[in-house]
Amino acid sequence: MCRSIKTLRPPAMPEEATEADIRAAALQYVRKVSGFRAPAAHNQEVFDRAVEAVAQATVELLDGLEIRGAGAQRAS
């Protein structure tokens, strides 16, 4: 796990994760996996698609988690 990616679920994060929080985590993940901080122009499109896919998967994960002892699921 990339050390700069923070936990986005309660109670680790007191407020609901914002779209910016989720996108930042997705970007860090794709950077770590690809080994590129900024992709070359010929890789930009696939890099951006990967960031969006990871961000969407993160939203789905957070929406589906049941945090026991912390009330109901994350509201959409």
Automatic annotation (TrEMBL):
InterPro entries assigned to the protein according to its UniProt record, in alphabetical order: DUF2277 (IPR018735)
Pfam families: DUF2277 (PF10041)
Full protein name: DUF2277 domain-containing protein
Species, as recorded: Streptomyces coeruleofuscus
